[in-house]
Write a structure and sequence with these properties.
It is built from 3 helices and 3 strands. By secondary structure, the chain is mainly alpha-helical. Strand 1 and strand 2 form a beta hairpin. Helix 2 runs antiparallel to helix 3. It is flat, with a radius of gyration of 31 Å.
């Protein structure tokens, strides 16, 4: 398995290298529209010479800033010093709004799940008049089962998100 992966990686590297050095043709059609192609089989195409790829190393980094040790009073910050700050009351209001939105969304998903489970009827929903073919009925049952699973996953994700709130 490891050898196959290494072989695939080596092949991708070689093929990428050859593609970078392939021929390029400039094709001009009757209307004067220019198009670049890697094959010159069509009429009006001329091979063009492109300069090779030049690799320029990155410049050396400037002198590094000295590391400043922080005391217990000065908390290290993840954001820049000029980053706009929000006061705690505004942040609490935003967090409460977010929590309420998530709770409303979870309540809506739970109602949807209850409705889906009721219609699903433990895997035997009532057949509709347009489902004379049993395969159509089975497709609808499978789709209902997928909807139930997706809704349950949505509810789990919402519960996790609500649990992550402060």
């Amino acid at each position: 398995m490891k050898q196959q992966f290494l072989g695939l990686l080596l092949f991708a590297g070689i093929s990428g290298h050859t593609a970078a050095q392939s021929e390029v043709f400039l094709c001009v059609d009757e209307t004067g529209k220019k198009e670049y192609k890697n094959t010159g089989l069509t009429k009006g195409c001329k091979k063009i010479d492109l300069p090779g790829i030049t690799m320029i190393p990155a410049p050396p980094s400037a002198a590094r800033k000295p590391v400043v040790q922080t005391t217990a009073a000065a908390k290290p910050s993840n954001s820049p010093s000029d980053f706009p700050r929000v006061d705690s009351d505004t942040q609490k209001t935003r967090d409460n709004d977010r929590r309420q939105i998530l709770l409303d969304e979870m309540r809506s998903e739970e109602q949807k799940l209850a409705s889906l489970k009721k219609d699903f009827n433990n895997g035997e929903p009532e057949r509709r008049g347009d489902e004379r073919n049993f395969a159509r009925y089975q497709e609808r049952v499978a789709a209902m089962k997928e909807d139930i699973g997706r809704t349950e996953k949505n509810i789990e994700a919402l519960r996790r998100e609500i649990g992550n709130l402060k």
